[in-house]
């Protein structure tokens, strides 16, 4: 019996070819080109600024460096990897530059607010109001309380209305004239200026209580007008994502439609709906113009939404910065501290939305 010896497998050799010769740039190549482009751009601007006796233009250095990097990465990738891969790297570089540009104002605002707001971020700021305070001292307890009360009341008004409107549009009125009319009105309300909502709420309360009325509930109505279209749109999109198979399965078991919505549709979309509601609250909590018209401003504590003026953080920031006394630094420091507090409240709302979305998201595993 003849046996055929197996063909010996050639031993694998080491990586004799580099990335350049194998038609692919090494991973460090884009970063090296970026450093090279920024270094060349910095050298050019240093020479120009030294010759002209001007300051080093940071913005110009970054822009020229980014353009030079895009040119270098495209040319080198086209030579080594081909036109298709070169264009992919070029588009990736453009997207990365756009992301960096978008992050510049965000980081700048955060650094500025934190750096200047910490000067008055103390216990007195959170435990006292501005009643009887001229100059240094005082705090924003009345403004924080007013912001939470007015925003909470606006949420209690707008969330049920917006959620039930979205349920009607998705579950009952998709092809009806009323549904199309409501969708059109919601689209119009989404784009109205905030000052118009404030004037609407003021006009309504002026007809009831007389001209010159200022109260917290009027500010809540104005914010609710701004919140309702956002809640409707976000809830509508989340309800639309619920598979029809879940509804049909419930109908096949004899479950009525209203109970299917309560027990199947809403629990499935509750995570996205909660996120949209939190974003709507974060959108209106920093509004100044409607609250300035409807709730006014005051230096004293007011816990009653239906009685008298009520201070809020946006109006507090405006009043402290616009009507500076002596010394002006005290007023500016209070304004920056209030701005930092408002940002922290919005951040806390977004964190709550993420936690709720994670906890109540439908579980896909067994």
From TrEMBL:
GO biological process: phosphate ion transmembrane transport
Compartments in which it is found: Cell membrane
Topology within the bilayer: Multi-pass membrane protein
One GO CC term on file: plasma membrane
Domain named ABC transmembrane type-1: residues: 144-353
Keywords of the record: Cell membrane, Membrane, Phosphate transport, Transmembrane, Transmembrane helix, Transport
Positions with biased composition (Low complexity): 1-13
Segments passing through the bilayer: 31-52, 58-77, 89-119, 139-170, 182-209, 215-232, 264-285, 335-357
Domain of life assignment: Bacteria
UniProt-listed Pfam families: BPD_transp_1 (PF00528)
Family annotation (Gene3D superfamilies): MetI-like
Region (Disordered) location: 1-21
Gene Ontology MF, one: phosphate transmembrane transporter activity
Record function comment: Part of the binding-protein-dependent transport system for phosphate; probably responsible for the translocation of the substrate across the membrane.
Family, as annotated: Belongs to the binding-protein-dependent transport system permease family. CysTW subfamily.
Protein name: Phosphate transport system permease protein PstA
Source organism phylogeny: Bacteria, Bacillati, Actinomycetota, Actinomycetes, Micrococcales
Gene name of the encoded protein: pstA
């Amino acid at each position: 019996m003849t046996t055929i010896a197996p063909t010996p497998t050639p031993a694998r050799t080491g990586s004799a070819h580099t990335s350049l010769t194998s038609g692919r740039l090494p991973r460090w190549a884009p970063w090296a080109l970026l450093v090279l482009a920024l270094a060349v751009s910095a050298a050019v601007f240093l020479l120009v600024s030294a010759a002209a006796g001007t300051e080093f233009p940071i913005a110009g250095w970054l822009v020229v460096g980014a353009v030079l990097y895009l040119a270098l990465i495209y040319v080198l990738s086209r030579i080594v990897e081909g036109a298709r891969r070169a264009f992919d790297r070029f588009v990736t570089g453009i997207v990365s530059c756009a992301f960096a540009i978008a992050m510049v104002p965000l980081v700048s605002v955060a650094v500025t607010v934190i750096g200047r707001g910490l000067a008055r971020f103390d216990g007195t700021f959170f435990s006292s109001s501005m009643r009887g305070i001229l100059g240094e001292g005082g705090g924003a307890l009345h403004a924080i309380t007013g912001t939470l009360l007015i925003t909470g009341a606006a949420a209690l008004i707008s969330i049920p209305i917006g959620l039930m409107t979205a349920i009607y549009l998705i579950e009952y009125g998709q092809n009806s004239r009323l549904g199309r009319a409501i969708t059109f009105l919601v689209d119009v309300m989404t784009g109205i200026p905030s000052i118009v909502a404030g004037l609407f709420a003021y006009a309504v309360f002026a007809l009831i209580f007389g001209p010159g009325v200022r109260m917290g509930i009027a500010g809540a109505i104005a914010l609710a007008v701004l919140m309702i279209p956002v809640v409707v749109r976000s809830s509508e999109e989340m309800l639309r994502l619920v598979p029809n198979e879940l509804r049909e399965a419930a109908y096949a078991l004899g479950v009525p439609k209203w109970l299917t919505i309560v027990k199947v549709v809403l629990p499935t979309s509750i995570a996205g709906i909660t996120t949209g509601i939190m974003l709507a609250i974060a959108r209106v909590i920093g509004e100044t113009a409607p609250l300035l018209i409807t709730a006014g401003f005051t230096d004293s504590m007011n816990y009653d939404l239906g009685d008298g003026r009520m201070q809020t953080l946006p109006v507090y920031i405006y009043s402290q910065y616009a009507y500076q006394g002596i010394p002006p630094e005290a007023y500016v420091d209070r304004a920056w501290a209030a701005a930092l507090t408002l940002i922290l409240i919005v951040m806390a709302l977004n964190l709550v939305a993420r936690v709720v979305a994670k906890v109540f998201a439908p579980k896909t595993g067994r």
